[in-house]
Design brief:
Blueprint: H1 3-11, H2 30-43, E1 50-51, E2 57-61, E3 72-77, E4 92-94, E5 102-105, E6 110-112, H3 119-122, E7 128-130, H4 139-157, E8 166-171, H5 185-188, E9 192-196, E10 204-205, E11 210-219, H6 235-244, E12 261-269, E13 273-282, H7 285-306, E14 311-319, H8 323-326, H9 331-342, H10 357-364, E15 370-371, E16 375-376, E17 384-386, H11 387-401
Parallel strand pairs: 3-8, 3-9, 9-15
Antiparallel strand pairs: 1-2, 2-8, 4-7, 5-6, 7-17, 10-15, 11-13, 11-14, 12-13, 16-17
Helix pairs in contact: 1-4, 4-11
């Protein structure tokens, strides 16, 4: 199957995950893609392809040569972000993009302007897959799945290419931070692996945010406003005050590169009770701790001012920066860079302003940097994919899997 047709087939399947669900996977519809991928892997000669009870697809392409020591894994995630609907995706094809404003939906007047989305400027001459402006696309991370499947298909069709044992896994719930909670390292059986997820095709990423979530519950006191003087404590106003105690520029709208942030995901409440959910991010471990301390100090201040337990604060670490572990075996990054150069790519390493399944897996003992896919503007209606880069990623994965001649 052509890689573009494969990708389009995958994005037509709704696999949106649910951050409020406690099931595994968080949405049953993710099994629809998982079961399809198992079937396709079996057809491509991955004889042990299976789907776990938690919705993870596992499989292995056995080595076709002797005396190979490295067992290399490739991982991508099946779910799409809860940030925007992934149902009834209607992908559009732009062949040989010439530059200028892209009209995604004429009736709704939804357009993508290079002045707002500068990645378009470097994609001039590329074939692009875009949305119709009403859903996300799902390139994050069905582009990664398509690239891995295309690699398997190519190796299956070209048995003269020598490779070692290749492990494959497709995970659910990466977008809600639960992609690896049921991941079986023994079943996956790889010495190291690469996630194939988002970003430019020539990026090999091995450092990411340290990450935490903060749940802030504000307990107020509701009194009839006609007799509220010196009695009412409006939890919504206290929540606003709490947020104002955090550093104003530690905000994703004010940060880039290695700068961390506190992001208020949502706030819901009334006079009596308000709940706020934040994510806390920083590449630097000490600065990360400082941000968490800022939350604690704000809670202490509010409780001293309004009374004990006015603020109930819970902070939980979710994943850590994998750089310090990856650097203990940096050859797995250099291998990718060498393979990129071999096929005419210029490798780049950037710090991920986010996290991947690979970060969690690295801390579980499976070193797992990330390779890009050619996806842009993920999690929203302006998401698009460079077909040129997607095809190049598939070529790169074949190179990574290929045994180097002595």
């Amino acid at each position: 199957m052509d890689i573009v047709k494969r990708f389009v087939k995958y994005v037509m399947i709704d696999t949106q995950s649910d951050e409020n669900s406690s099931t595994a996977p968080s949405t049953a519809k993710q099994f629809n893609l998982a079961n399809l991928l198992q079937k396709e892997l079996l057809e491509l000669g991955v004889k042990d392809a299976c789907v776990s009870d938690a919705g993870i697809v596992y499989g292995h392409l056995e080595a076709n040569c002797e005396n190979v020591t490295d067992k290399i894994g490739f991982i991508a995630h099946m779910d799409t972000s809860p940030d925007m609907s992934g149902s009834n995706v209607r992908p559009g094809l732009i062949k040989n993009y010439r530059g200028g404003v892209v009209t995604l939906n004429k009736e709704l007047n939804i357009k993508m302007d290079p002045s707002v989305f500068p990645s378009l400027k470097k994609d001039i001459g590329h074939d692009l897959i875009v949305t119709d402006g009403t859903t996300l696309l799902g390139a994050d991370d069905k582009a990664g799945i398509a690239a891995i499947m295309d690699m398997i298909q190519y190796l299956n069709n070209h048995p003269a290419i020598k490779h070692g044992k290749i492990a494959i896994a497709f995970t659910p719930d990466e977008e809600v931070g639960r992609g690896t909670e049921n991941f079986d390292l023994d079943q996956f059986d790889a010495d190291y692996a690469y996630t194939v997820d988002g970003g430019n095709a020539n990026e090999i990423e091995y450092e990411n945010f340290n990450a935490a979530s903060a749940l802030v519950k504000i307990n107020g006191l509701s009194i009839h406003p006609g007799s509220a003087k010196n009695k009412m404590r409006n939890s919504q106003l206290i929540a606003m005050e709490f947020n104002s105690l955090l550093p104003v520029f530690d905000n994703p709208a004010c940060t880039e590169g290695y700068e961390g942030f506190n992001h208020l995901l949502n706030i819901k409440g009334d006079c009596e009770n308000t709940v706020m959910n934040y994510i806390i991010r920083n590449h630097d471990r000490n600065k990360f701790q400082k941000q968490k301390d800022d939350f604690g100090n704000a809670a202490t201040f509010i409780n001293n001012k309004y009374g004990e337990k006015t603020v109930e604060l819970t902070i939980e670490d979710t994943y850590a920066n994998m750089r310090e572990i990856i650097e203990t075996n940096f050859k797995i990054v250099e291998r990718v860079k060498d393979k990129m150069r071999k096929i005419g790519m210029t490798p780049v390493s950037n710090a991920i302003r986010g996290g991947t399944d690979g970060a969690s897996l690295t801390y579980k003992g499976l070193l797992c940097p990330n390779i890009g896919t050619g996806g842009r503007n993920c999690h929203g209606k302006y998401e698009y994919l460079s077909i040129n880069e997607l095809k190049k990623v598939s070529e790169l994965l074949v190179e990574i899997a290929t045994i180097d001649e002595a």
